[in-house]
Amino acid sequence: MNFSDRLAEQIRLKNNPTVMGLDPRLEYIPASIKEKHFSGNTDPLKAAADSILEFNKKLIDATYDIIPAVKPQLAYYEMYGPEGLRALYETILYAREKGLLVISDGKRNDIGSTAEAYAAAYLGKTDAGGKPVEAFGADALTVNAYLGIDGIKPFTDLCENNGKGIFVLVKTSNPSSGQLQDLILADGRTIYEAMADLVEQWGSTSMGQCGYSSVGAVVGATYPKQLMELRKRMPNAWILVPGYGAQGGTAADVAKAFDKNGLGAVINASRSLMCAWKLEAWKAAYSHEEFEKAARAEAQRMRDDINKERENI
């Protein structure tokens, strides 16, 4: 099934256009979990990975019935070497077993056989008999398109043939994004506008029945004006919106990413869900040891907050 249609189906089913970022740091994890895995363990990398995996599973167990997707940030797993990659693999597998879509956040890019290897690693490929062969087995991946179509085609091929999706960096949420992305080209477009036009073009061969393609864009909530402009510029592209919550993006900001029917965007929150027990709204109700209960409460509040704005589009 087309990735775009699967995403639309899950958003409609759960009435929730959000994704939970799984960007775990050891300081986010309660002492009881770390003590269990570090006590007597001579391999600190394995202990860290096991702690992260248990943390992730508890977050998934607490939210899988109300959110459509999770987004593990690969760097937080790669830093622990092979053990971290094991935790990533098992996190993805567990999330998919729970019916969640998985968007791996790796911002990968290269050309030729190297790009093909990245695509095979994170999105899977098809063997000679037409059977999908997957390594990490995510449903979608964030990619950097700076190298142009040479670096993107191996990924779009999997969007067309294997039901996978990608989200191309267009206008990122970080403060210095404008150093390059806001530069003006000779034809009057900014670089991010030119990238948006390419995203719309690249997605033309992987359109879903929902009206959106499996080639989406990453546009930060911290730039609401550009978010509104890019929604119009990419009418057929899903927009993955980071920056809600801890980075300062609000429901009113991210509402600009949706179309008139309240579709077309998926909003990410990471720290504000993983560490929801620290938030003013929940710190009196939940302890660090109850982080997953706080995450569920915040996920529901986030859903309702964004849905209220979607209704006003």
Question: What does this molecule look like?
Answer:
- With 313 residues, the protein is of the alpha/beta class.
- The protein has a domain at 3-156 and 246-310: Aldolase class I (TIM Barrel, Alpha-Beta Barrel).
- The chain contains 13 helices and 10 strands.
- It has helices at 3-14, 31-38, 44-63, 75-78, 81-97, 112-123, 149-161, 178-181, 191-202, 224-233, 251-254, 271-274, 291-310, and strands at 18-22, 69-72, 101-108, 125-126, 132-133, 140-143, 165-171, 213-219, 237-241, 265-269.
- The strands form 2 sheets. Strands 1-2-3-6-7-8-9-10 form an 8-stranded parallel barrel, surrounded by 7 helices. Strands 4-5 form a two-stranded antiparallel ribbon.
- Helix 7 links the parallel strand 6 (140-143) and strand 7.
- The longest helix is centred in the first third of the chain and has 20 residues, at 44-63.
- The two termini are 29 Å apart.
- The mean pLDDT is 93.
